[in-house]
Amino acid sequence: MLKQNWNQLEILCEEQRPRYINGKEIPNWQKGLTVWEAVNYLGWKGWLLVSWDSFTLWHGHGKLTLVRPKQ
What we know:
The chain has helices at 35-44, 56-59; strands at 8-14, 17-21, 24-25, 48-52, 62-67. By secondary structure, it is of the alpha+beta class. It has a five-stranded antiparallel beta sheet with strand order 3-2-1-5-4, with helices on one face. It is globular.
């Protein structure tokens, strides 16, 4: 289990959808946003994508890390 940090999100994606955020499973994850839609949405909310596994954005499998800059 990851330690909760309000300024950092770690998202584990599989089957082209985010499945876990900060170690917690997303309910009904198969019906949720695609990886690109989630990254775009969080980008509009001020989150920055800082690291990702090589094919997460293209194939939808892997881990994304986003941070929220301090205001």
